TrEMBL record:
This is AraC family transcriptional regulator. It holds the Pfam family HTH_18. InterPro entries: Homeodomain-like_sf, HTH_AraC, Tscrpt_reg_AraC-type_HTH. Keywords: DNA-binding, Transcription, Transcription regulation. One of its GO terms (molecular function) is DNA-binding transcription factor activity. It comes from the Bacteria. Residues 39-137 form the HTH araC/xylS-type domain.
Amino acid sequence: MASSVYDAFAYTLTALYYENFKNAYRSEQGYIKKDVLIKDVLVYLNNNYREKITLDQLSKKFRASVSYICHEFAKEYHISPINYVIQRRMTEAKFALTNTESPLAEISWRVGYENVDHFAKLFMRHVGCSPNDYRKQFKNSLVEQAYLLPNT
């Protein structure tokens, strides 16, 4: 009888240990999957920011709800996925405005906006000045810096 009590006790401990391990593994795997998912969303946004991106597209592509993607992305990066795309586009536009002589329509198209007026409005809202003013300010600051350099 003592052996059957010990066997039952050992079986119960083994079952509890297995359940505990299984649950810990699941939560660890869930955390890893969530972390990877959000990083995959970021990589996707960086690689495709020039394309039209919607939350529904992200939801279908990553097989997660819109609210889940938005919540987890914002928790990790402190910005929504769509605002991240806009910010990424504005960064690329600022670089193009200061490093090329490309027309505004071309820059707008290159960073993902088909409508140059829409691009200009978003640029104004996010950067604080028009794209043309941004380019002029940059050129003026270069001229001022050139005057400040000592003649050799």
